[in-house]
Input
Amino acid sequence: MQKPRIRWHIAVFLAPAVLVYTAVMIFPLFNTLRLSLFSKVDQERVYVGLQNFQTLFGDPFWSEQFWNALGNNFWFFLIHMLVQNPIGIALAAILSHPRLRFAALYRSAIFIPTILSFVIVGFAWKLILSPIWGIAPGMLDAVGLKSLFAPWLGKEEYALTTLALISVWQFVGIPMMLIYAALLSIPEEVLEAGEIDGITGMSAFWKIKLPLILPSIGIISILTFVGNFNAFDLIYAAQGALAGPDFSTDILGTFMYRTFFGFQLQLGDPHMGSAIAGAMFAIILVGVCIYLFGIQTRMRRYQL
Amino acid sequence: MKRKIISLALAGTALVATSAYAEDVTLTIESWRNDDLTLWQDKIIPAFEAEHPGIKVKFTPSAPAEYNAVLNSKLDAGSAGDLITCRPFDASLALFDAGHLADLDDMEAMGNFSDVAKSAWQTDDGSASFCVPMASVIHGFIYNKDAFAELGIEVPTTEAEFFAALDTIKEDGSYIPMAMGTNDQWEAATMGYNNIGPNYWKGEEGRLALIKGEQKLTDPQWVAPYATLAKWGGYLGDGYEAQTYPDSQNLFTLGRAAVYPAGSWEISGFNALVDFEMGAFKPPVQNAGDTCYISDHTDIGIGMNAKTANPEAAKTFLSWVASPEFASIFGNALPGFFPLSSTPVELEDPLAKEIVGWRGECESTIRSTYQILSRGTPNLENDTWGASVAAIKGTSTPEELGQKLQNGLASWYAPQQ
Output
């Protein structure tokens, strides 16, 4: 009987990816979770168990900020789901229309903001919407709608929605590209067979194409979810770490940053910051699990 | 014999090597004053290097809003510069307690400063000083002299005159009465609340009473400034809610606004930009003849990284910073940052001279929230930003704001419980 050969090549080929991923992702993740179980007392780091989480959810000062940030995060996500993804799908459907001219031009133009830095996007939109120098008041004035203008980024009731729409503007290219690719992969035969059965135009989209691109929409939803709950850059670039006005644009990312690194006279607290990061990780994990086990396994797939 | 020659030669090269090394001592300064980069490179550093040939100095500032976070990370990682520009009070005290800043009490040059000047960079009991005081900033209002002359407005000294002047500017309509926005929040607290506040809580008297727990933030002298700020909203430009700090600066320097609630640090920047004559008036008092109080805030110090590789060179630099020579270069190169050294410095800039003159007429104090009171969570300074914005926007009443701040402070500060 021959001994089964040890297949070294598997380990060798996996090693680079595993090592790099462990060093830059897995180790920091677990180290952050470990850090959240400690606290600093008189310059000494001491183990305090789950006390930081108890403070985060039990102390009204912390929990109020946490729930405010979480609520804002859900609103941020909701706007992306309701605005970004439907527009992305609609754009992809229009772009995939065979008789559309300049499709490549539109496609690039819509995708370009995605590759811009958050800082540029935040700064450009801040200028566009500025009540003093911005072009938004002037443009509204030109069509006689000046009364509709408000300093949106400075008003508690509009600021978060405005920032979410800016983020939608920046990232609408991503769902568009993914759906566009999915639409292109639908074979002509399927559509032609539908046409013979009398399904054309809009109903061809709703009855044939949409069911076929549902898995892609699922992937986009989960990417949006993870992206939004990890969001930080745009809010920080546009509103600063205090996420003004009056914390109305504070999301988990900015709350974590402010706590971890400190702000102005407030000193950083890496341990509480890690606790918030841990809570963010848990929320995203739960969301992804719900999607993976609750939705994706039930999604019907079609053999094309 | 041969061996001796070799060892001599070796010793010789070693000597050459060390002396070459000594000439290469480079000190790096961490700072948040990126606005001052050219000043350091063109004036301060050359003046120092001319006197101390063995030492090179590099000024490496980072953005003001990120400085504390960046510095803390660098210090923890051991990659921070040799000299560290010190924020006043707790941010630096925490660095000292964590062993990042060296104790400077044995430095002879520290004798050039008064106790008040050193207070921002000392332990609570005053036993150790860890930063050389560099400068303070004074709050008040800068105004457009041409606009005031055009509209026939006298410089206001009382609050009634102040609001009457703003009314006149508003009615005329060619200028925005006051350039300030609430988007960045700190302007409302720093140039608003802590600018006009000392006249209400009587400067040091109220500030120290608050620290001792003898006064509360719900007392009338602490709430009244919010009521005054609430009146400001009507005099700020359209859409002030989204107006940022640079927006406000530009509105004033472009001559579109008549009054700018200021800190004196604006002077050098404004001098370069305006084409009208500027004047300054101190925060108006409630009734004519009242004692005036100004916020003369110890703002910048400089200390030594305890882990620096070149402690001797760093101390040489710090001693020079404490000298009258540096005070004179710094005070005149950066009008608006007033040197704290005991030897008086003659300032050339008229606006800076006007403002520093208030030190003689009024009682000086520092910002109420900076010493001790912003040590806990919730942070009183950050809360004051939000409260001042809410007062100006009118989203909360002054009494509610006072109560909220008091509750936050009392939740962790024993003397207020």
